[in-house]
Amino acid sequence: MTETRPYVDWKLVNDFMIDVFEAYGVPREDAAICADVLLESDRRGIESHGCNRFKPIYLDRIKLGTLKPVTQIEILKETPTTVVMDAHDGMGMVASHKMMTMLIEKAKTYGMAGGAIMNSTHYGIAGYWTGMAEKAGMIGISGTNARPSVAPTFGVEPMMGTNPLTWTIPTDEDFPFNFDCATSTIQNGKIEFYERMGKETPAGLVVNRKGETMTDSGKILKDMRKGQAALLPLGGLGEETGGYKGYGFTTIVEIMSAALCGGPFMKDLNGVNEDGSPRLYHLGHFFIVINPEFFMGLDTFKKTAGDICRALRASAKAPGADRIYTAGEKEHEAWLDRKDKGVPVGESIQKEFIQLRDELGLDYHFPFED
Amino acid sequence: MTETRPYVDWKLVNDFMIDVFEAYGVPREDAAICADVLLESDRRGIESHGCNRFKPIYLDRIKLGTLKPVTQIEILKETPTTVVMDAHDGMGMVASHKMMTMLIEKAKTYGMAGGAIMNSTHYGIAGYWTGMAEKAGMIGISGTNARPSVAPTFGVEPMMGTNPLTWTIPTDEDFPFNFDCATSTIQNGKIEFYERMGKETPAGLVVNRKGETMTDSGKILKDMRKGQAALLPLGGLGEETGGYKGYGFTTIVEIMSAALCGGPFMKDLNGVNEDGSPRLYHLGHFFIVINPEFFMGLDTFKKTAGDICRALRASAKAPGADRIYTAGEKEHEAWLDRKDKGVPVGESIQKEFIQLRDELGLDYHFPFED
């Protein structure tokens, strides 16, 4: 992929984000966690959850009061293998970091651990949390609810979030098996991308109130804002191509994210009150950690997982297809491509960075200013 | 649905299956487990995994020597929260029953439990095992590998099984949330159904060696037997409609079913040697049990799970759609319809039952003989 955006040194962006978060009231140690989560998304080439979200999803919400910079974590329940937290509308990334640190310790002793967080906020890429387990030699599973945008099979109303059901699994390769994506066929960000490219959204991804799939990207975005269009679950419209299966996965995440911690769900996660005023998000997440040492051992596990990935990649390709990928491979290659170059920073983010620096009187100079 | 097949009393079929299994060398207590698993499928209206499989998938394989009627369960590893078993090619249903019984006990004490079985055989509907957890007030998760039939995204070769990733979740309703299906868009059985009906298989479900989707149901079945056609993962062909997500879910199950127990996977599960002679299946399964009492309690959990299901069903329907279902609802309604009537038994199964009875000299009279 040819990159036209200028690269900015990883450490520079990281330091800048930490300083800005701190200026917004986030304690420095917490700010370091949040910056790392956002940059991990850029490291993996997942542009939708990286520094593009720094201002709109985090800083603006802190200003608005729907995200509290100081995270008061209350442990509602703890047992040898489980933890339930109330994040009290603080930084979801800070609560999730504390959660995964605790669960990994528990899984070291007990082999299995599970946790849930209520009254949280956007926790970044789910794969960051499952990746913490993987770095400790364990399997991580996580999901989160989100603002309703997905319709159930045979339905047309946005009821559930795009609800990732994320797994990171250790392998003997240079990178783990990392499956981190929404359980809908598509996300808002991809439709915005199609619109910017002047492209139609492929059929079977979005449904209107008449139960028909929509392809006009601009109209989709407009109608979605009015609740008159909804994303379809993985598998598409109706039952014939398995749409009820994607619907099932989305529902699993909706239930697990709210029921284990007794938090809110679906329409209560809209982020706005009936009068249109902003509301606290009160998101919920869940986490599962499995330690292969309590089964047949980590080495056995990694070897088998790696063998499976290698065999898949080596299998017969469709004519015209260069490669078969396994989950996490593209993200690993994005990192290899970027690690020595830095974060590609597009124009709108450049403007945000400059504006934030000037607003806060911080002493940074970015290469794209030259 | 109008039922043209005669109904046979549940107890009669159950007793008959137990007696037949016993005559085939399965210990009576194990036979009772196996009959219950097969009939649970019929109770739920899942015709593909019920008494239609009694003879071809179990009895015939016992005769052939690829399924051992006496299940020698070896516990390879046990910790307070985990179990790994070798089923030594015995009845997968018997090993799975023992596994879930152990895991439920562990989850009562520790909140979380996980298990894996190697050298197993077909374990029936995955939802039976997750349902055991649900009946104990817990969340059950399970998956199994299977004979390779699914191609990876951009691939055309059957590499992985239809690999269900099954969850049963307690609710405060009369029935649980029960999500039990293959991670491919479609299974063999459904294509056989389309062929019997003289119907085309919808596009986007099966791929040929040219990387094109196939719709001729007869040709699909023929080509799949030769390994020249493969099922597509949930989400369909390529990446545009999310096929890589279904591919990810299928791979997760492939890894979890083999790597935790160190068992075989993919092509090694073909069931035939290179010379075409039958081979032991050596399947692998995995199981996770989560006890909501170690989170915010079972009642809280069930209420939230039920509220989510009810809200989904009550949401705006597509014009022409009568109902929105939640996973497990159709199965529950099948049971309500059948519980007083019995098992619907079609002609081919009637013949198998009569033949088995006569072969074994058992004293049964079936209503369809009148």
Walk me through this protein's architecture:
- Two copies of one chain form a homodimer.
- By secondary structure, the first copy, chain A, is an alpha+beta fold.
- The first copy, chain A, folds into two domains: 1-64 and 340-370, Hypothetical Oxidoreductase Yiak, Chain: A, domain 1, CATH 1.10.1530.10; 75-185 and 232-327, Ribosomal Protein S8, Chain: A, domain 1 (2-Layer Sandwich).
- Helix content of chain A is 39%, strand content 14%.
- The first copy, chain A, is built from eleven helices and eleven strands.
- Chain A has a seven-stranded mixed beta sheet with strand order 2-3-4-10-5-6-7, sandwiched between helices.
- In chain A, β6 (165-169) and β7 (177-179) form a beta hairpin.
- The two termini of chain A are 24 Å apart.
- In chain A, 54% of the residues are buried.
Which helices and strands appear, and what pairs or packs with what?
The structure is a homodimer of 370-residue chains.
Chain A: E1 7-8, H1 10-23, H2 28-43, H3 54-64, E2 74-78, E3 82-86, H4 92-110, E4 112-120, H5 126-135, E5 139-144, E6 165-169, E7 177-179, H6 188-196, E8 206-208, H7 217-225, E9 229-231, H8 243-259, E10 283-290, H9 298-313, H10 329-338, E11 343-344, H11 347-360
Parallel strand pairs in A: 3-4
Antiparallel strand pairs in A: 1-11, 2-3, 4-10, 5-6, 5-10, 6-7, 8-9
